[in-house]
Amino acid sequence: MKYPELRYMGSKKRLLPWIFDVLNGLDFESAMDPFSGTGSVGYLMKSMNRRVVSSDFLNFSSLVARATIENNTVHLDGKSIKKLINPSPAAANFIESTFIDVFYTREDLRFLDRVSANISTLDNPVERAMAYAALFRSCLKRQPRGVFTISGNLDRYDDGRRDLRLSLEEHFLEQIEVYNNAVFDNGRRNLAVRGDVFELPDRKVDLVYLDPPYVPRSDDNCYVKRYHFLEGLSAYWQEMPVDETTKVKKIAKKYTPFSYRRSAVEAFDRMFAKFRKSTIALSYSSNGYPDLSELEGLLRRYKPDVRVFEKPHRYHFGTHSGVERASVTEYLIVGR
């Protein structure tokens, strides 16, 4: 079953076979993924017929997880699709007026205003999540570098890709089919929520898969900086005011203690303490802070048996000729 992977910084897509091999050797019936990101690992665990609780502190990521992990049966049918692409002009034009000459064509921006209004008319919250997931993936495909840190005339990135020729509406119709095809029932009551890892209610799960942000080498590694447009779109920028002083119309950065050297070590310790009753599988990278030995030491405070699985990995971010690459060693640090 093919997961509709998002073009996303730190995506684990190409590591999924390795992650499967490690997780498949562990004894667990239920799992939590509190840094779900694209949702690919949570979806993997769902496909392993485990009960999965997924969460993320970003709203758009939690909607993707609701569409693909929590959702066992709901598809967007012809009636819902007709409602979503209703050509009646939207009552509000916030996206068109805010992002003209920043992202996308005027036609695309009008479509985003219209489809945002139409999504709100769907009664079923899972249907709304499905529509948003299709819309987010469409926006990423239409954006040449798959991020929202560059604006204006992006013709220099146009390498003839089909994704750059299709309108957002054409992408959206294709992505609805993609997400419909990804829906399956694993016979478990899975759940997707939005929340900070430290504010999540305690739930009894056998295994917790942890993939927190790494202390960035530069601010360019900030998820909100790269994906602020999707986060704003997920709520039509309600309670997410745009910073008009920025060229790309950013929203406020969300605080996480994992992104700062002064607070990261204490955050890992708190997180390991929170999940000490479950098997812990920490996904980490050799370019992160703190380093492997310090993380092992922290985890051994709570787990007597700590094993480290390693895999050389080369990240590829983007599809353009100047694609960013980074050679690292990926770790799965398992504490039981």
Biggest sheet: strands, sense, closure?
7 strands, mixed
- Helical content stands at 25-40%
Strand order of the largest sheet: 3-2-1-4-5-7-6
Count, helices: 12
C-alpha end-to-end distance: 30 Å
Number of strands: 7
Order of secondary-structure elements: HEHEHHHHHHHEEHHEHEE
The computed structural class is: alpha/beta
Give start-end ranges of low-pLDDT stretches.
Answer: 318-323
Shape: globular
Would you kindly provide a written description of the structure presented here, covering whatever features stand out?
This protein has a seven-stranded mixed beta sheet with strand order 3-2-1-4-5-7-6. Mean pLDDT is 91; it is low at 318-323. A hairpin with a 6-residue loop joins strand 6 (306-317) and strand 7 (324-335). Helix 1 packs across helix 2 (40-47), helix 3 packs across helix 7 (125-142) and helix 7 (125-142) crosses helix 9. It is globular, with a radius of gyration of 20 Å. The protein has twelve helices and seven strands. The protein has helices spanning 16-24, 40-47, 59-70, 78-84, 94-99, 106-119, 125-142, 162-165, 168-182, 223-233, 261-274, 292-300; strands spanning 30-33, 51-56, 191-194, 207-210, 279-285, 306-317, 324-335. The relative contact order is 0.16. By secondary structure, it is of the alpha/beta class.
